[in-house]
Specification:
The protein is α+β, with helices and mostly antiparallel strands. It contains seven helices and four strands, in the order E-H-E-H-E-E-H-H-H-H-H. It has a four-stranded mixed beta sheet with strand order 2-1-3-4, covered by helices on one side.
Length: 222
């Protein structure tokens, strides 16, 4: 059985869960509390980060972007990166945008400061970083709105890893109630579409015992 080591509010883990579901690939989910630094887990992932995918034959892959590329090469239907060089380039550009730029400017400043610092025992949240994250998200939501207005999905006609990566990051920020949807209705419309997909809905059931999500979190028609 394929196994995915993940953490509920890890955006890269969520992206791989969505990709697996879109491709119809079953996987046993194992929650990895990365702050425990388990030697067995570090043997698979020297960085100590999730996600980690272990294939049925024992092949072990780390890093969300690497796993996504592997899945699209080995399990090509449906394609999530693109059917031609230009579409693949655009998908990779946007997946990098949300996986790195959005992560650095928004996810790390909000989820990292408000939640992960507590689990990792890294001290009190940095209020300046939180303010930066709340300011930065508007720019990214405006960009999503622009893309969604000019294309069917973010990178083109079909759902791709660009949409999956953006949705994974927004879903963890939305878990904290920190996405200003009312200010960005076009981005909200795009997120509503992807939020309704069967591949995404199971993620909305994830819970952190000490930090429940806002009421709208699981509402598909929010």
């Amino acid at each position: 059985m394929r196994t995915l080591y993940h953490f509920a509010l890890s955006a890269p883990s969520r992206a791989i869960r969505i990709a697996l579901a879109e491709k119809g690939l079953e996987a046993q989910l194992k929650v990895e509390k990365v702050w425990e630094r388990r030697p067995e887990f570090l043997g698979m992932s020297p960085s100590g980060e999730v996600p980690v995918l272990v294939e049925p034959d024992g092949t072990t892959l780390t890093d969300g972007s690497v796993i996504a590329e592997y899945l699209d090469e080995v399990y090509a239907d449906p394609p999530l990166i693109g059917a031609d060089p230009l579409s693949r380039a655009e998908t990779r550009r946007l997946a990098c945008w949300f996986g790195q730029k959005f992560a650095r400017e928004v996810t790390d400043n909000l989820v990292g400061e408000k939640l992960m610092k507590r689990f990792l025992a890294l001290g009190e949240p940095d209020s300046q970083a939180i303010r930066a994250g709340k300011a930065n998200i508007h720019y990214h939501l405006e960009y999503i709105a622009y893309l969604a207005e000019t294309r069917n999905w973010l990178a083109g006609d079909g759902l791709t890893l660009a949409d999956i990566t953006a949705a994974a990051h927004l879903s963890v920020v939305d878990y904290l109630g920190d996405v200003p949807w009312a200010d960005h209705p076009k981005a909200k419309d795009w997120y509503s579409r992807i939020k309704c997909r069967p591949s995404v809905r199971p993620l909305l059931e994830d819970r952190i015992a000490t930090a429940p999500p806002p009421p709208h979190y699981t509402d598909l028609d929010f």
